[in-house]
Amino acid sequence: MAVFVDTHCHLDAPEFGAEMPRIRARAQSRGVALCVIPAVAAFNFAAVRELAHLQGDAYALGIHPMCTGDALDEHLDLLDAELARQRDDPRLVAVGEIGLDFFVEGLDADKQERFFHTQLQLARKHGLPVIIHVRRSVDKVLKHLRQVAPGQAWQGIAHAFNGSEQQAQACIDLGLKLGFGGAVTFERALQLRRLAASLPLEAMVMETDSPDIQPHWLYKTQAQRDAGEPQGRNEPGELPRIADVVAGLRGIDAAALAEATTRNAVAALPRLSALIGVSAGSLQSA
Q1: Domain range for 68
Q2: 177 has which bridge partners?
Q3: DSSP states of 58-125 as a string?
Q4: Would you say residue 193 lies in a domain?
Q5: What is the largest CA-CA distance in the chain?
Q6: What pTM was estimated for this model as a whole?
Q7: CATH number of the structural domain spanning residue 194
């Protein structure tokens, strides 16, 4: 069976609740060997760590740009302290989810940038990769990456990438892998599907962003929701089917895509190697 890594899924979200063991088992049965669970704010640092250990998964610690409105400067100090406290935890694989969001209205752009810049500095301080939210903000994200580490490469992932080909190449040139998930399954997502088909295979990783970014077979339109149909809930078990779409766009076998993207995930987040027995240069399921 193909081995997948879901490099981004919020499994501590309330949408999952008591169903989590069944959901995780279903993903495992479909070949999702490992999930990376990013924090979004100081309040769930402990939750993502405990869940990762309970399920045999991985986690990241950071403050999401959409959570910066309620965040305090002391939370950056808490993050620094927690990264130091967990420095030898093999399941802590990155600083994330951090970044910038210029799509959601009402967010303080200056505060977002200040929190992002500081968290990039913390990632460098603690020697960890980054998992970056880049919604309508790729150029500013690139600016901060270059400012924090001039002339140096980064390890990590540009999560849910949906920028231009030029922006994609700029991220790749800085060392980042690009995350693809449910959005690529929509036929109207022409630019994203072109990127999924044409980018170097070694630049891509797979993700779900569960419970969000539903693939087309789970998504309900506003009209359907108004008619009483509940919005579908994404979960890691959908990843192989999403990957089938990407493999089809590229004209390759799904197993080849699984092998490559799992290897890429390890290259982006090296601590994954010990968790699933995969190195950046080989693929051997544990």
Answers
A1: 4-280
A2: 157
A3: EEEE---GGGTTT--HHHHHHHHHHHHHTTT-TTEEEEEEEEEESSSTT--HHHHHHHHHHHHHHHHH
A4: yes
A5: 53
A6: 0.96
A7: 3.20.20.140
Domain count, the chain: 1
Backbone angles phi, psi at 114, to 5 degrees: -65, -45
Does any domain span residue 269? yes
Instruction: Identify the sign of the CA torsion 151, 154, 159, 165.
Output: positive
Mean pLDDT over 224-244 rounds to: 93
286 falls within a domain: no
| C-alpha–C-alpha distance, residues 74 and 51, integer Å | 24
Q: How far is CA 32 from the centre of its chain?
A: 15
Task: Determine the 3-state secondary structure of 95 from DSSP.
Answer: strand
Strand spans (E) along the chain:
4-6, 32-38, 58-61, 92-101, 130-135, 156-159, 177-180, 204-206, 278-279, 282-283
Q: In what order do the strands lie in the sheet with 177-180?
A: 4-6, 32-38, 58-61, 92-101, 130-135, 156-159, 177-180, 204-206
- 182-196 per-position pLDDT tens digit: 999 999 999 999 999
Residue 285 lies in a domain: no
